[in-house]
Amino acid sequence: MRQRRREMGFSLPLPLFYDTASVRCLPDFQSCYGHEQVGAEGRRQDRLCHVAYNPCKVFSSFTAYTGRSGGAKEKKTDSALFQEVMILDMPGIMSVVKSKVMSKRDELQIFMAVAACRTARAMLRRLNTGGTSLPGKLAGWFRKDILAITSKGVETILVTGTNGKTTTAGMLAFAMEKAGREPLCNRSGANLLSGVTAEFAAAADLRGRPLGGRALQDRQKRGQKTPGLPTDREAGLSASLASAAILDFPAARDSGLYAVIECDEGALRQVTPLLHPRVIVVTNLFRDQLDRYGEVMHTLEAVREGIRLAPDAVLCLNADDSLTASLALDVPNPVVWFGIEETAAQGTHPTSFAGKKESPTGNRAGQGKLDTEKAKYSEKTDSPERISDARYCIRCGAEYTYRYHTYAHLGDFRCPACGYARPLPDVAVTSVDGIDACGSRVHMRIPGKETSHPSPREIPVRLALPAVYNIYNAAAAISAYAAAELPMQEILEGLAHVQSSFGRMEHFTIRGVSIQMILVKNPAGCNQALDYLYAIKEPCTIVLCLNDLDADGHDISWIWDVDYEKLCGCRNIRRIFVWGKRAEDLQLRLKYAGFPEKRIRRIPEKELNRLLDEIYRSEEPVFILPNYTTMLPLRDALRRAAGKDSFWKG
Fold first, then answer.
1. CA 203 to chain centre
2. Pairing between strand 622-625 and 513-518?
3. How far apart are CA 545 and CA 543, in angstroms?
4. Which helix (H) or strand (E) holds 501?
5. Which of 258, 375, 408, 472 could lock onto 524 through a cystine, CB 3.0 to 4.6 A?
């Protein structure tokens, strides 16, 4: 390839090299090349496209090279070789060049990618192992850009962040399903590139076209042609292959082409260039899995890079998180902000440290813009462990002042040095009317983009999930619906009946015992779970579980940043069980927290059945706080006892 480039006289590096004639120029590149091989008139032709960006002028030149066996390459210009060319001139992204011609090689690669994905998933699910990641890896092996192909034309809402992405995505998917939209979603939580690819490839036809709607299935059964989608016969498939159970069309979706995808923070920069989401939701950013992500600033930069690769997406950002809010700086994306107002922060939780603060002065204007008003902020700072993830300004390094907090470093922040401050939320929780084990009741101010309600309005919202962080998740879901310009009533009705995602506030009733599972995997999330338990006054049993496998992160030092000391003041906690590979570390942490040793019982890792027997024999409600890999076997045992579905079925 290098020799060929020298023959052609290229002096610039070749940043992208694809088999398709689709080119996207990233902001850091000055030029971009695309390459496609097609058969025409019985000979092989190589198409090359060079699109260069000049700040003062945008131009394109198309040069075709005809290769003859054993001979030199003849250079000629022929723009007719390209049937469709579209050049987008916008800041940060340069060009998109597409060709309608697809080679037989491309068709075969796509066919094999989709077929391999469906075959692997069908086989793995017959073994009840989920098939959430390996099928996507196989599809990507046959065709690296299979995600871009199978997601073309799909309206995608992408949800990322440290905590709450699974629950927020579940809220959105539930609301859409209740409204009859039936979106594609990765319910199992497989949120890396392979997991996202598996969902889209398994839901595409054998030419990689995304399928949606029952009408499509009806047309296929009647043999009618659907505009833009080929029938099996047109795809060149035999009747026997098209009717095979494994390679048949997936279950129909009721209407439209929608997807709600949860994405890992570290994988965002891999997924967004291929998926081209319409909306990107960032719930929050905290320290998580230090041996994988490093410090939280590394996570922030990974998310920022992913957003830069999706300049057309609408961002839904947490206005109360100084790290998340900084993602709106220096990007062209429109932003919808969500957050909790001071009037609501005081009622978020009995252990909340949002106290009575001095009221802001003046009228806050500029909705959706960074608020730089000179309000009177309290100079009082909370204990460092509360806000250790973001104590200092992302722009100048000065220490933030807060008018109020909700939890961790979330709240109404402001830098006294440079003026960087919390934006005014578009979707705002204005009051918390009640939180109990059955859910939450709040009032929210929502944007007025609908015809019947052109102005922002405050409405009561019923959420079927408890805890403060789920109120944030609900606000994020509403902002995503607003950004996607979907009917607001759908998400409001959905929130009132939404069910917990697997392992996230999930409830089981087995042999008359009430069991609730709350996934915890970092200090911020675990502290919020403990706040929830602290508010429960009835006698209860707690099960703490900890592993240090790859999916959890090998560094478990985060448990020393968790405020387990608050458990010492809970007289209603009868017993605490610890289980997992690092159960001894948990036992030691509780001892140092001051919890009585006689009330702590350690169950050996290999004695899961013994732990289950203790849970089933409990005379009071049981709350299980596992990290990820301890959750999977526990949840599988509990769901079988309770008659629930496997985790990959949601």
1. 19
2. parallel
3. 7
4. none
5. 408
Q: Looking at the predicted structure, is the pLDDT value of residue 298 above 50?
A: yes
Of residues 435 and 370, more confidently modeled? 435
What ranges in 436-571 are assigned the alpha helix state H?
468-483, 488-497, 523-534
Residue type present at position 5:
R
CA–CA dist 585, 545 (Å, integer): 10
CA 388 – CA 403 distance, rounded (Å): 17
- For residues 423 and 416, the answer to whether their CB atoms sit within 8 Å is no
Torsion, Cα 409 414 419 424, to 10 degrees, reads 90
Q: What are phi and psi of 562, to 5 degrees?
A: -85, 140
pLDDT, tens only, 10-52: 333 333 333 333 333 333 333 333 333 333 333 333 333 333 3
Nearest to 320 by CA among 398, 258, 234, 412: 412
Among the listed residues 606, 525, 507, the one whose alpha carbon sits nearest the alpha carbon of residue 563: 525
Structural Rg of the chain based on CA atoms: 27
Query: What tokens were used for 331?
Result: 């990007």
Q: Which helix (H) or strand (E) holds 402?
A: strand 401-407
Going by C-alpha positions, the residue among 334, 338, 316 that lies closest to residue 480 is 316
- CA 283, distance to chain mean position in Å, is 9
Pairing outcome for strands 513-518 and 600-603: unpaired
| Other residues' Cβ atoms within 10 Å of the Cβ of residue 438 | 12
CA angle 579, 586, 532 (to 5 degrees): 90
Structure tokens at 219: 């047309």
Pairing of β 58-66 and β 43-53:
antiparallel
d(CA 300, CA 403) in angstroms, rounded, equals 24
Q: What is the DSSP-derived secondary structure letter of residue 327?
A: G
Q: Which helix (H) or strand (E) holds 428?
A: strand 427-436
Report how far residue 403's alpha carbon sits from residue 535's, in angstroms, rounded to the nearest whole number.
25
Using DSSP bridges, classify how beta strands 184-185 and 258-262 pair: parallel, antiparallel or unpaired.
parallel
Residue 643, CA atoms < 13 Å, CB-side half-sphere: 3
**DSSP single-letter state for residue 582:** T
Beta bridge mates, 93: 90
With contact defined as beta carbons under 8 Å apart, do 188 and 130 qualify? yes
Alpha-carbon span 282 to 157, nearest angstrom: 11
Q: 404 and 342 in contact (C-beta within 8 Å)?
A: yes
Considering the entire predicted model, what is its pTM? 0.74
- The residue with greater pLDDT, 449 or 262, is 262
DSSP state of 198: H
DSSP result, 101-144: ---HHHHHHHHHHHHHHHHHHHHHHHTTS--SSHHHHHHHHH-T
CA 187, 188, 193, 197 torsion-angle sign:
negative
CA distance 212 to 177: 13
The H-or-E segment that residue 625 falls in is strand 622-625
Tokens linked to 3: 């020799």
Q: Is the dihedral of CA 508, 284, 292, 121 positive or negative?
A: positive
Taking the C-alpha atoms of residue 276 and residue 273, their distance in angstroms, rounded to an integer, is: 6
Q: Euclidean distance between the first and final Cα of the chain, in Å? A: 47
Tell me how far apart the alpha carbons of residues 393 and 414 are, in angstroms, rounded to a whole number.
8
Domains defined for the chain, CATH in brackets: 2-81 (no CATH), 104-282 (no CATH), 337-497 (no CATH), 504-649 (3.90.190.20)
Confidence at 82, pLDDT banded by 50, 70, 90: very low
How far are the Cα atoms of 167, 182, 226, 241 from residue 221, in angstroms, in the given order? Answer: 37, 20, 11, 15
Contact by Cβ (8 Å): 517, 634: yes
